[in-house]
Amino acid sequence: MTAMIGEAGTRDAQEAFDAAVAADERIEPRDWMPDAYRATLVRQIAQHAHSEIIGMQPESNWLTRAPSLRRKAILMAKVQDEAGHGLYLYSAAETLGVSRDELLDKLHTGRQKYSSIFNYPTLTWADVGAVGWLVDGAAIINQVPICRCSYGPYARAMVRVCKEESFHQRQGYELLHTLSKGTPEQHAMAQDAVDRWWWPSMMMFGPPDDESTHSAQSMAWKIKRHSNDELRQRFVDICVPQAEILGLTLPDPDIRWNEERGQHDFGAIDWSEFWDVLRGNGPCNEERLNRRRQAHEDGAWVREAAAAYSEKHDRRTERDRHAEHDQHGKAQA
Ligand code: BYC
Question: Whose alpha carbon is nearest atom 20 of ligand 1?
Fold first, then answer.
């Protein structure tokens, strides 16, 4: 698609947009796009970015208490990666004509969501493992298809994010494996963490398809490639054999292989808990948002310094340009 579309009139532009989506071409920031497509992307990418930076909190909770230097270095790298993901995603959102300040303000005032999963506490060291294995595992399943999202900047941002998420998932899996095969107390701690994180991880994929307001349209636009339930099923099918290798059980007595479907059946999800967390009533909603607002306030001087530096730099470049121009003029005279 080219920037010419905007000049061809709305109907032609819409046709060109539809054709590009149908042909699996990428929509780029300067291309014409329907307002609702733009709004959906801003909503999803912003929610995704917010999740990345709020997601730093439950894990950084354990940074000062990691049991070894190696574990601490790994966890620090992971938490820093999440900050990086937030930055790519805010940048991707900015290509749609919104500013980072505006998005952060919406997060801080509760007008934009972040993932439900980060409203649960990390009570023990084993939670760091469970978050890596289950939460990052769910994130990969959800995000790999977004590498083929119709909107170019979002799709490209996801490529690196997914590579880093794979490392995160592996560190969680390895951590849980070590605990599970350790002392009986360590094994019990790993099992307890999995028991608490399993159901919230299942909810990360969003409401069931028949209650998902945006899925049908987002799939038609190829922002989403699979429905919430499809991805949730994939998650269960991947986790069951991994849990066996870990020597841990998933807290769902209804999980069993269904020969006919070639997939696992699983038990009913308590959706009232999900909606309650979204309404702000999860165990940590208030704590997460307060911490985020405080971090934003604490970082005000960094933003001011960066803006002042950038202004100074712009002034200097402008001065140099004038000086060069004058010299050029004198040389010609
Ligand atoms: N939490 O119509 P639906 C990470 C909302 S970062 C909260 O199905 P959609 C990580 C939804 O927004 C993980 N809200 O929506 C980071 C909508 O409400 P609004 C984040 C949820 O957008 C650090 C309503 O429910 N990943 O993994 O088609 C450390 C109806 O839902 C949730 C992403 O953001 C939820 N779980 O599908 C470690 C990935 N689910 O907006 C790990 C990108 C649904 O109308 N996002 N809602 O008020 C997506 O793929 C999609 O947005 C979703 C939801 C699948 C999440």
Answer: 48
Model confidence pLDDT, tens digit, residues 22-65: 999 999 999 999 999 999 999 999 999 999 999 999 999 999 99
Contacts of 240 (CB under 8 A, 6+ apart): 250, 255, 264
Whether the per-residue pLDDT at 1 is higher than 70: the answer is no
Of 136, 130, 114, 116, the residue nearest 62 (C-alpha) = 130
pLDDT band at 163 (very low <50, low <70, confident <90, very high): very high
> What distance in angstroms lies between residue 190's CA and the mean position of ligand 1's atoms?
27
Classify residue 205 as exposed, middle or buried by CB count within 10 Å of its CB (0-12, 13-18, 19+).
buried
Backbone angles phi, psi at 258, to 5 degrees: -110, 105
The pTM for the full model equals 0.93
- CA geometry: angle 302, 307, 310, nearest 5 deg: 125
Cβ(225) – ligand 1 distance below 6 Å: no
- According to the model, what pLDDT value does residue 7 have? 57
Q: How confident is the model at residue 253 (pLDDT cuts 50, 70, 90)?
A: very high
Dump the DSSP string for 16-69. Answer: HHHHHHHTTPPB-TTS---HHHHHHHHHHHHHHHHHHHHTHHHHHTTGGG-SSH
CA distance 14 to 1: 12
Mean pLDDT estimate for the chain: 95
Q: What's the rounded Cα separation, in Å, for the pair 220 and 237?
A: 26
Cα of 300 to ligand 1 centre, how many Å? 28
Q: How is 160-213 classified by DSSP, letter by letter? A: HHHHHHHHHHHHHHHHHHHHHTS-HHHHHHHHHHHHHHHHHHHHTT-S-GGG-S
Report whether residue 171 contacts ligand 1, using a CB cutoff of 6 Å: no
Pocket lining: 285 vs ligand 1, CB cutoff 6 Å: no
Per-residue pLDDT reduced to its tens digit, 293-312:
999 999 999 999 999 999 99
